[in-house]
Amino acid sequence: MSDDRESERIKPAKQESAPRCPACAAFSHLAAKLLDTQNGKTVRLYQCQCGERIWDD
Ligand SMILES: [Zn+2]
Q1: Domain residue extents for the chain
Q2: Confidence (pLDDT) at 10
Q3: How many A from CA of 1 to the centre of ligand 1?
Q4: CA–centroid distance, residue 27 to ligand 1 (Å)
Q5: Which terminal residue of the chain, N or C, has fewer Cβ atoms less than 10 Å from its own Cβ?
Q6: Ligand 1 center to residue 4 CA distance, Å?
Q7: Residue 29 CA, ligand 1 centroid: distance in Å
């Protein structure tokens, strides 16, 4: 089978790591990416399937 090849194709270093939800411990997904013009940096908003929002700045 091609299990080994599949795992080689996955490059975790290049993926944006989503934080775990503090409420249910599930992985959240990236909901929005906002530019904070005051600080000049990008702020990411993650949302969990349970509805919990996690700000990552
Ligand atoms: Zn959750």
Answers
A1: 16-56
A2: 53
A3: 35
A4: 7
A5: N
A6: 31
A7: 10
CB-CB contact of 29 with 46 (8 Å): yes
Q: What is the pLDDT of residues 30-49, one digit of tens each?
A: 999 999 999 999 999 999 99
* Interval 11-36: pLDDT, tens: 545 556 889 999 999 999 999 999 99
| Distance from Cα 54 to the centre of ligand 1, integer Å | 9
Q: How far is the CA of 37 from the centre of ligand 1 (A)?
A: 29
27's tokens: 């992985």
46-to-2, 25, 29, 33 alpha-carbon distances in Å? 32, 13, 5, 9
Q: First vs last Cα of the chain: how many Å apart?
A: 41
